Amino acid sequence: MKRNPLANAILWLVLILGTAAFAFPLWWMTVVSLETPQRAEAAITGSSGLALFPPSPQFVNYPDAIRETGSVPWMGFVDALANSIVITVLVVVGTVLSSSLVGYAFARLRFRGSRPLFVLMLGTMMLPGQVTMIPLFLLFRQFGWIDTIMPLVVPAFFGSAFFIFMYRQFIAQIPESLVEAARIDGLGHIAIWWRIMLPLCRPVTAICAVFTFIGTWNDFLAPLVYLHSDEQATLAVALNGFKNQYGGLEDVHRLMALSVLTMIPCILLFIAAQKTFVEGLARGAVKG
Questions:
Q1: Of 17, 114, 119, 190, whose CB neighbour count within 10 A is largest?
Q2: Tell me, what CATH number does 113's domain have?
Q3: Over the stretch 236-274, which tens digit does the pLDDT of each residue have?
Q4: DSSP letter string over 222-277?
Q5: 20 assigned to some structural domain
Q6: Is the whole model's pTM more than 0.85, yes or no?
Q7: Sequence-distant (≥ 6) Cβ neighbours of residue 229 within 8 angstroms
């Protein structure tokens, strides 16, 4: 059905205003990161307005911010970046593999107590992280994992309740005849999951990967609790350390530059996975 021209205009106006509202913080950070210290401080305090684009962009703010991150010039940022990449990639891989495997089991395997176990798993979503933080810390300390990436990576290989639910709902919609044909060809459950279900679950995998990547990349509390040395710090922890060391208004331009650098991987990932991500949402990945 064709929309009324007035309804189209209102819809476009709402979309433009919504986009501007969400894009404003990123634009504001980028502009401040390219300003001189005096203009950035004036913009923060409100003594002068913020230009649409800096008249003389100070791109040197970015290497300056990178050099001052951590206790060792340059290497502090490089170490934090490497740690964030390693932890995030391992967490994404572990979450996708474990959640899809458990989701397949709940969707296709018939065993006694499967429904109560599924309900119990969903019930874990109601537990806030603050409740399990201290017991997990004591457990990981007994394992000798404190100040290593193990407490951040290993739990990901045991699945995420929310993503298990998504995979289970998606796999349950796949025709049973496809699974029966694979069994006739001699495939076991692991082979069916790996060779058939995972490729078909690509929209759900995109959602799982994007959400997990953004959540892990920007996670601050868990690395702060488990990683104590500067060599093991992630970008979120390094950014907080930079703020504590150079938190004055005279250094706000470098703080914004470091914040923009930290956000770039998340933006690039979403742009790269946007098509598959939107496809998963459009197909109703969580539809029962």
A1: 114
A2: 1.10.3720.10
A3: 999 998 888 877 778 888 999 999 999 999 888 888 877
A4: HHHHH--SGGG--HHHHHHHHHHHS-SGGGHHHHHHHHHHHHHHHHHHHHHTHHHH
A5: no
A6: yes
A7: 147
